[in-house]
Design brief:
The chain has helices spanning 2-15, 17-39, 80-85, 129-147, 151-155, 172-179, 183-190, 242-251, 260-267, 280-288, and strands spanning 43-44, 50-51, 66-68, 71-75, 92-100, 116-125, 169-171, 195-198, 211-212, 217-218, 220-225, 230-237, 273-279. By secondary structure, the protein is an alpha+beta fold. It has a single domain, classed as Bira Bifunctional Protein, Domain 2 (BirA Bifunctional Protein, domain 2, 2-Layer Sandwich), CATH 3.30.930.10. Helix 2 crosses helix 4 and helix 6 crosses helix 7. The two termini are 15 Å apart. The relative contact order is 0.18. Bound molecules: asparagine (ASN). Residues 55, 78, 80, 119, 121, 234-236, 275-277 line the site of asparagine.
Length: 308
C-alpha cells in the first residue's frame, strides 16, 4: 500500500514545473563544467558502476555485497581508488560518476541526502592540496558567472552570492571548538562565501588521504556552501606509499586484507596525486536555491523510501 502511494508521488513529481526547471539547470551546469574541464586538458573517463573496491567512507553505511565470478562486488560509493589508479594512464581526469550510498532513513529530514547521486570526481597527477583548492575556486567562479544569467535562476528568484577569492578557511579543530562536533550546518548557515574546512584528524577521515606526520592531520579539505546549504566538496592529497597506507589502515583498525586488490596495485607503484568529488545534485540545489534535493532528479531515491 505504502509503495503504491510512493509510486503515485513519482507521477506528480515528474509533472512538477520545479522538477522540469531544476533538471534543465542541472543539464546546463554539467555542460559548463565539461567545457571548462575539456579546455583545461582533462580527459573524461566512464564511471565504474560496481567493483570489489570502493570508498569505505568515514561514516557507517549499509553495504550490499554480491558475488561476481567469486569476487565480492559492491556498487560504487565513490571512485576514489579508480581515480588514483587511473593516474598511471593519464595526468588529469574527471568522471561524472554515479554513487550509491544507503543513507540512514533519518537523513531524509536534511533535504540534501540522496541514496543515488552523481559526483564530478576529479584527479590530478602530482598536484598539491593548495593547487587543487585553487583549481576549485577558479572552476566555481567560472561556473557561477555563467549560470547567473540563466532563466532557471530568474524562475526561482535566485540571487547568487558574488564569490571572492580566496574563500575563507578554518581548520577542523577550530571548527569543532567554535561550532561543536556537527559544525557543518552551523558554519555553513553563518557563511556568506563558500568555506574551506581543512586538516581533518585521521580518526574522522577515510584512510586514503596523505597524513602530515608533523601535524598529525590529513592533507585534505571539505568545502561548505554558504547560506546553510552544507557540504559541497571533499578531497585532498592521496597517500601513494604502500607502507604508509598499511600503517594508516592499522591505526584506524581496518583489516588490510579487505583492500588486498588495491594494495597489490599500489605496491607496484602509483604516482602521487590529489583530487576531489563534488556532488552534482547538491551543486544544482545550491545554484537554484531550492532546498529540497529531490527536485534535482527525475527519479530521486530519498533515504528510507522506495523512491520519493
Ligand atoms: N573523498 C573523495 C575524494 O577525495 C570523494 C568522496 O566522495 N568521498 O575525491
Amino acid at each position: 500500500m505504502k509503495k503504491i502511494k510512493e509510486v503515485l508521488c513519482i507521477r506528480t513529481h515528474l509533472l512538477d514545473k520545479k522538477t522540469y526547471m531544476v533538471n534543465r539547470l542541472k543539464s546546463k551546469i554539467i555542460s559548463m563544467l565539461r567545457t571548462y574541464l575539456d579546455r583545461k586538458g582533462f580527459i573524461e573517463l566512464f564511471p565504474v558502476v560496481a567493483s570489489p573496491i570502493t570508498d569505505p567512507l568515514s561514516s557507517p553505511y549499509d553495504t550490499i555485497f554480491f558475488d561476481v565470478y567469486g569476487y565480492k562486488f559492491q556498487l560504487t560509493k565513490s571512485m576514489i581508488f579508480h581515480k588514483q589508479l587511473s593516474m598511471l594512464t593519464f595526468e588529469k581526469i574527471y568522471i561524472f560518476s554515479p554513487n550509491f550510498r544507503i543513507e540512514p532513513p533519518e537523513k531524509v529530514s536534511t533535504s540534501r541526502h540522496l541514496v543515488e547521486f552523481v559526483q564530478l570526481d576529479l584527479e590530478m597527477r602530482g598536484a598539491s592540496r593548495e593547487e587543487i583548492m585553487d583549481f576549485i575556486e577558479e572552476m566555481l567562479l567560472y561556473l557561477f558567472e555563467r549560470v547567473q544569467g540563466e532563466e532557471e535562476l530568474s524562475f526561482f528568484g535566485r540571487k547568487l552570492p558574488r564569490l571572492k577569492r580566496p574563500f575563507p578557511r578554518i581548520t577542523y579543530s577550530e571548527a569543532v571548538e567554535k561550532y561543536g562536533d556537527d559544525f557543518e550546518y552551523r558554519l555553513s548557515e553563518k557563511a556568506s562565501q563558500p568555506v574551506w574546512v581543512i586538516d581533518f584528524p585521521y580518526q574522522v577521515r577515510e584512510f586514503y588521504y596523505r597524513e602530515d606526520p608533523r601535524a598529525g592531520t590529513m592533507v585534505d579539505f571539505d568545502l561548505l556552501y554558504p547560506e546553510g546549504f552544507g557540504e559541497a566538496i571533499s578531497g585532498g592529497e592521496r597517500e601513494w606509499r604502500p607502507e604508509r597506507l598499511k600503517r594508516m589502515l592499522m591505526k584506524k583498525g581496518i583489516d588490510a586484507d579487505f583492500y588486498d586488490i588495491y594494495l597489490s596495485l599500489i605496491e607496484e607503484g602509483v604516482p602521487p596525486s590529489a583530487g576531489f568529488g563534488i556532488g552534482i545534485e547538491r551543486l544544482t540545489r545550491f545554484l537554484s536555491g531550492l532546498k529540497e534535493i529531490k527536485f534535482t532528479r527525475l527519479f530521486p531515491k530519498l533515504p528510507g523510501k522506495f523512491g520519493i
